[in-house]
Write a structure and sequence with these properties.
A hairpin with a 2-residue loop joins strand 1 and strand 2. The protein is globular and about 60 Å long. The protein has about 240 residues and is mainly alpha-helical. The longest helix is centred in the last third of the chain and has 27 residues. The N and C termini lie far apart (about 55 Å). The chain is built from nine helices and six strands; from the N terminus they run ββααααααββααββα. The strands form three sheets. The chain has a two-stranded antiparallel sheet.
Length: about 240
Amino acid sequence: MFPKLLEVSGFVIYSYPLFIGLSWGLSYRLGEARYPELLGRKRYVFWFVGVFLFSWIGAKLLFLLTQDQWKNTELLVNSNFWLGGGFVYLGGLLGGAAFSLIFLIQQKLNFKALEFSIVPLLLGHSVGRLGCFLAGCCFGTVSELPWSIHLHHAHRHPVQLYESFLLLMLAWFIEKKSSEKLIHYLMGYGLLRFVLEYFRGDEIRGSYSFISTSQWISLAMILMAIGLKVKSQVIKNTEI
């Protein structure tokens, strides 16, 4: 693909870190335009920085957990690993969610105080997947479809582009149609990621039993969405 977008006199712009940076920058600016008054700018910036750091660590740790033990030791002491590639999005999501939960408890806020961030998260994630596509990572399974791409010695599904497009559609739906943003994010992304895993050809993130690590996490997201929906319905029924 195009891991290097530009190289002039030894100066190189790599596609993956560029698009990851763009995804975080876009998410920050969109969130900045949306955060509720009760949060305030200082708390928004503090929360965003915390989410960034915990997401970074979470994305790296889940990557390590899916690797062979001997490789883990080697990567743990490698600064290039911590500052470079080797991210797992769902690990980052778990890390960011963990910090957000701590933040909400510490600030005595309801989880709805952070629902403004879901659409920026989806749009940033969509941009980040374009970086995966250009870098040739997170690639798809072998395909003979007309729109398949040649990568790693075979024609493959451009699964990164599938995900990027579906993330945009989910963002549109949640923005325009959803009054339960967190529930629909957990259900929507859980479902699309579970299905997309069958079109992914990079098995580096590991599998347990008959499905991948990412699919187990996707199932947990779906179950959480169902649990929140049931709880929401019970609360509504008791108020009637």
